[in-house]
């Protein structure tokens, strides 16, 4: 219950701070800089070195990749039929295809399952994180109206993206250096991601004018909250995959939009208003949809 309250409190605090003008207009940009440059690398360094890789973990590792690819195709077809701008399409790709597998996902797994299932969720989370750090940032660059695309620029942006540096460091450094004494530090950095990211979303979240974006929001959330986990469920059924690893993988893909994807969309000016609405409304709706997915996964006998 505390996790549910914290999520609502952080978003609400951001909205109230904005309405009462308690912070400068662009205060969220400073918060986003902390998240991207400090907190997100801390997440990788906290979790990745402690994962024991086995072939059974291929399913939760591949699920986010499949959801990203299908989401990219989904939004590409939608953008062509609706003739929306490149920036809006880029924002929708980021907010439709990446799941909030950690800050929303972890608490919901603790609420609906148990702590031992977090090991499976971490696999989904880190692959999602890698997608944002690589192909996600490439999509952001290509979609930005302010960036001229070149191979050199793309390579530079990707290789200097702090979360990617954090992921690579977390995979390589433990083979040479014992990072365990720094675990308390990484943990303290990692726990700042969720509250600050949601507070940042609250600072930007304006429900005024949401009706004009309703079609885009509905389309993005239809995929993110319903079609994405349904796709993973269908694949699991075809592969005759059962058990807790499969359930957690599907449940994680049913999470709302990765908040950091909204942060990146804002940084690259990919219709930040729409991106923020997808993130904010998606989180609210997910408290209902994830409960329905939990019932399906536990009582339908499908997996």
TrEMBL record:
GO cellular component terms given for this protein: plasma membrane
Transmembrane helix listed as a keyword: yes
Keywords linked to the UniProt accession: Cell membrane, Membrane, Transmembrane, Transmembrane helix, Transport
Localization annotation: Cell membrane
InterPro entries, per the entry: Mem_transp_PIN-like (IPR004776), Na+/solute_symporter_sf (IPR038770)
Superkingdom of origin organism: Bacteria
GO terms of biological process kind: transmembrane transport
Membrane topology: Multi-pass membrane protein
Membrane-spanning parts: 57-78, 90-113, 119-141, 153-177, 189-207, 219-239, 277-296
Gene3D superfamilies listed in its UniProt record: 1.20.1530.20
Pfam families, sorted: Mem_trans (PF03547)
Family assignment from sequence similarity: Belongs to the auxin efflux carrier (TC 2.A.69) family.
PANTHER family, per database record: AUXIN EFFLUX CARRIER FAMILY PROTEIN (PTHR36838), SLR1864 PROTEIN (PTHR36838:SF1)
Protein name: AEC family transporter
């Amino acid at each position: 219950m505390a996790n549910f309250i914290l999520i609502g409190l952080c978003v609400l605090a951001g909205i109230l701070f904005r309405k009462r003008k308690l912070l400068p207009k662009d205060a969220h940009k400073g918060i986003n800089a902390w998240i991207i440059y400090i907190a997100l690398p801390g997440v990788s360094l906290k979790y990745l070195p402690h994962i024991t890789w086995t072939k059974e973990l291929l399913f939760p590792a591949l699920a986010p990749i499949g959801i990203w690819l299908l989401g990219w195709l989904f939004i590409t077809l939608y953008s062509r039929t609706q003739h929306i701008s490149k920036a809006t399409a880029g924002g929708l790709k980021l907010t439709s295809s990446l799941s909030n597998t950690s800050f929303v996902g972890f608490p919901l797994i603790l609420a609906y399952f148990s702590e031992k299932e977090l090991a499976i969720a971490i696999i989904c989370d880190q692959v999602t994180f890698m997608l944002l750090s690589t192909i996600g940032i490439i999509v952001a660059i290509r979609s930005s109206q302010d960036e001229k695309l070149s191979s050199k620029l793309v390579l530079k942006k990707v290789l200097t993206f702090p979360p990617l540096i954090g992921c690579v460091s977390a995979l390589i450094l433990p083979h040479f250096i014992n990072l365990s004494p720094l675990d308390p530090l990484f943990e303290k950095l990692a726990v700042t991601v969720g509250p600050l990211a949601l507070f940042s979303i609250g600072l930007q979240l304006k429900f005024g004018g949401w009706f004009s974006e309703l079609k885009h929001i509905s389309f993005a959330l239809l995929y993110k909250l319903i079609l994405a986990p349904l796709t993973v469920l269908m694949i699991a059924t075809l592969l005759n995959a059962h058990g807790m690893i499969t359930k957690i993988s599907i449940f994680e893909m049913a999470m709302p939009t990765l908040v950091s994807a909204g942060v990146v969309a804002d940084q690259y000016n990919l219709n930040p208003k729409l991106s923020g609405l997808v993130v904010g409304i998606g989180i609210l709706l997910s408290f209902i949809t994830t409960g329905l997915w939990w019932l399906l996964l536990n009582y339908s006998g499908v997996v």
